[in-house]
Amino acid sequence: MAYGGSKDRFLEEPMKNFMAKLRSLLPRESDSPEHRYFKTVIFLALGTIVLMLLAGFVTFMVTIRGPEQTMVPNVVGNDLENALVSLQEKELYPHIQLRYSSTPADKGTVLEQDPNPGAIVKAKSKIVLRVSKGSIIERIDNYVGWNIEDLEIHLKSLVSVHGPMLSIKEPVQRIFNELSEGTIISQSPEPGTEITSQTALELVVSRGPQTGTILVRDYTDMPYIEAVESLIRQNIYFTVSARDADENEKAGIVVSQNPAPDSDVPRESLHQLVITRPEDIPEGHVFGILEKSLPNYSIPANITIDAVSPEGVRETRLELRHKGGLLSVPYLEPENTVLLILIEGTERIRFTVKKEE
């Protein structure tokens, strides 16, 4: 115990001396004005240095702490533009890597990301995005010998896999050939051609043997609407003219035709029908024959006739193939209806239905 007490006294004396010296450095009233001013300046300088050191320490601690943390969003499956916006909102920087994928429709889509969604990272971190640049190649199959209608169905079934990569170029070239009608004779690009972008198939299709004939059906006494629909279904070229019914004739039927019924004629022959005007036309409606001269086509063109009612309702009235020349079809529409003739999907002719003066 005696040793411990002597140790405390040994430490106590130096502390007293240090505190006494420290108090002597503080400004006192007994000091001269010059001495007090000097001490004040010294203590202000020391205080400023201490504050600067403290501020520097705080700044250093904030700096080594680094940016705030954030959660990585899930951008897999998004298109690149939306993915970049999502990362920007989180103050994250993208690092984009492009690669091919098995599906052309994935082009421009984020396939993978690193770090994974939900990971916690510091703001301003780099996020690796692996983005599809589309499929590396597609190969065109051999469609020679297919029926063109079967090919159209086949291509539609591939839309979900191939997107719009492959389509049929219109108009399709059709020529007389020994092969059955609708059979694909040749194609371009050739089978096996590698494609990496949208491609249109140019096809040459058989129209059947040129010497083919058909047996003319008897259309007399048939309602004109049924006769026109029958001719369209058979892809037979026709014209229609109308006159008033005689006393012994019915209204709204076919009264004569050329070629004559039950005759054998080439498939390309023009059928001419004469019909009688219908009776009991609804009030405000107009019956007439739409006659327009079309350019001659080397291969039949797809013709669509739409009707736009005065109220703005649009409906398709007829769809047929036509080789050009005179187009004549009957109509029964409300007055001021607009008839549109579309050739290969493009509007070419407008006709407003009016009562004859």
TrEMBL record:
<keyword id="KW-0472">Membrane</keyword>
<feature type="domain" description="PASTA">
    <location>
        <begin position="66"/>
        <end position="133"/>
    </location>
</feature>
<keyword id="KW-0812">Transmembrane</keyword>
<protein>
    <recommendedName>
        <fullName>PASTA domain-containing protein</fullName>
    </recommendedName>
</protein>
<keyword id="KW-1133">Transmembrane helix</keyword>
<dbReference type="Pfam" id="PF03793">
    <property type="entry name" value="PASTA"/>
</dbReference>
<feature type="transmembrane region" description="Helical">
    <location>
        <begin position="41"/>
        <end position="64"/>
    </location>
</feature>
<dbReference type="InterPro" id="IPR005543">
    <property type="entry name" value="PASTA_dom"/>
</dbReference>
